[in-house]
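Students often ask why inverse folding is considered easier than folding. One informal answer: many sequences map to the same fold, so there is more than one right answer. In these notes we will look at a single instance of the problem. The structure comes first.
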């Protein structure tokens, strides 16, 4: 080996070592400034609520401000894409949900990969959906309403918040499993959709329990079922979709933290501890449970568990989305 080649190899090894030392140093001093959590939806929605509660709690463990930045648009793909392209230093993370990290990979043409371009941090919470029906629906329960729809095809209606949304997908599954035919009506947001169910303009929709239950308890709407695998503690009177014979319609709208791919493992571990501590703090837990969120046990809150859960959700829902030919408009 000549002298020049030995010098070149020595220099290359030194450069690689410096890069490794630099990454370790960053992880050891992290965080030294505020962290930005991208919530890829507008303020005020369920994802925003989850993000702000988790961000507030994480500040205690991190000793730094966690700033929530709402970056809405394209079903959450704009804000999510920004994090995919961010510097992997732990200072930009995203609160991803089922839509952004499962469905969007099928329903949108993305310039990033929902798996390869992210490092999982922690599963934060899950929210089952209530099938909310107008109070004058022509049946006492979902089984009766399905029978009515089968006898009156295309006269029933279900509102959704757009192509590829959980409500849209679950509506298609009800049609597939029961043979009932009804119109799926797209809305721009959950607010006007729920108001139209309550006012009787549309028959039913899927919505989170925190939004649905006040209308149910006021007698202005009916709870026809819930997508959780077991009955909700906050409303044990509502039967699950499994109990109603719709086993394929169990679903949880989950939220989880992700960082850009190649974020150092030490930084991921620090963020995970901050998130898990928040989720098991009685004060923050109460705030989330009051909004209908269910907090997963600790063994499901590791980065590895989140990666496995995301994969299982893709394995389950991608074939359904592809078979339905659902594409965002």
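Output (designed amino acids):
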């Amino acid at each position: 080996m000549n002298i020049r080649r030995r010098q070149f190899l020595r220099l290359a090894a030194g450069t690689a070592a410096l890069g490794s030392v630099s990454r370790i140093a960053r992880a050891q001093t992290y965080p030294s400034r505020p962290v930005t959590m991208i919530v890829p939806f507008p303020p005020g929605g369920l994802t925003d609520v989850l993000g702000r509660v988790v961000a507030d709690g994480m500040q205690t463990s991190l000793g730094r401000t966690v700033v929530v930045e709402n970056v809405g648009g394209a079903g959450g793909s704009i804000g999510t894409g920004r994090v995919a392209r961010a510097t992997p230093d732990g200072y930009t993370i995203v609160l991803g949900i089922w839509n952004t990290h499962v469905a969007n990979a099928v329903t949108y043409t993305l310039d990033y990969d929902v798996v390869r371009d992210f490092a999982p941090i922690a599963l934060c919470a899950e929210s089952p959906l209530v099938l909310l029906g107008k109070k004058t629906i022509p049946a006492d329960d979902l089984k009766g309403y399905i029978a009515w729809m089968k006898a009156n095809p295309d006269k029933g209606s279900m509102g959704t918040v757009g192509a590829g949304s959980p409500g849209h997908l679950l509506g298609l599954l009800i049609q597939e499993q029961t043979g009932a035919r009804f119109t799926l009506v797209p809305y721009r947001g959950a607010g006007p959709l729920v108001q139209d169910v309550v006012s009787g303009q549309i028959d039913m929709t899927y919505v989170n329990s925190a939004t649905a239950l006040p209308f149910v308890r006021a007698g202005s709407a009916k709870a026809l079922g819930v997508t959780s695998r077991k009955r909700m503690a906050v409303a044990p009177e509502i039967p699950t979709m499994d109990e109603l014979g719709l086993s394929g319609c169990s679903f949880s709208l989950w939220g989880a933290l992700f960082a850009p791919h190649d974020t150092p493992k030490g930084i991921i571990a620090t963020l995970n501890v901050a998130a898990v501590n928040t989720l098991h703090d009685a004060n923050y837990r109460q705030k989330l449970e009051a909004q209908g969120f269910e907090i997963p046990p600790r063994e499901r809150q590791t980065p590895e568990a989140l990666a496995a859960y995301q994969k299982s959700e893709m394995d389950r829902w991608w074939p359904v989305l592809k078979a339905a030919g659902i594409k965002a408009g």
